Amino acid sequence: MGRKSKFSKELKIKACLDYISGVRSVSQISDDLQVYKKTVYRWVNSYRVHGQSIFDNKPRNKSYSKELKLQVVKEYLSGEGSHESLALKYNISCDGIVTQWIKLYNSGKEIKDYNPKGEVYTMKARRTTFEERLEIVKFVLDNNRNYKLAAEKYLLPYSLIYNWTNKYLKYGEDSLKYQKKGPRPKDFIPDDLSEKDRLLRENELLRRQLDYAQLENQVLKKKEQLERQAELQRLGRKKRT
After folding, report:
1. CATH number of the domain bearing residue 7
2. pLDDT at position 183 over 60
3. Which end of the chain has fewer CB atoms < 10 Å from its terminal CB, N or C?
């Protein structure tokens, strides 16, 4: 079953017409709707090529035949269009999908008919930067949590993008930074604690620090005492000789 868009067909059409007629700029539409400028440009370009029907809700996930994929790759390799223009021409969800087809073709792998349930779930993970993870999560939220579309666009597993998004929503963008492995330091205080719990944690930390300082002081005193006793014994043996 297809995913209902966050924005209505009428709203998208109005945004396109406002831009084309000069009523609002892309920046103004982006600010008004809280979407990326790239999303607005995609709406406008799609509207110009396919008309208002491009914004109809689709009854199911879009699928692509092997023949279509090869046609798109052929046109790209012959210089008849860019990733973006070919995605627009053939109404492909995003230009990242075109990039994936081209990579498959150039690596000699077989291009198959697209199974809407399969590819994004079995895709291999790759190394990403914090900035890219943040961009991906914001793309997901900007597109009504369409994890599948993000997986296709950024060539990453569906489950990985799903987990990043949930972490971002629960703990903020810092949760997308890779953490060093190993136990947390004993003085670590989480940022999401309430004021009361934070004060209790800080007081406990101060108590442990005081206990440690007292213990350290006792050890130093004991060490000095033993050193004095050893020195007295040494002097006593020296006198007897």
Report:
1. 1.10.10
2. no
3. C
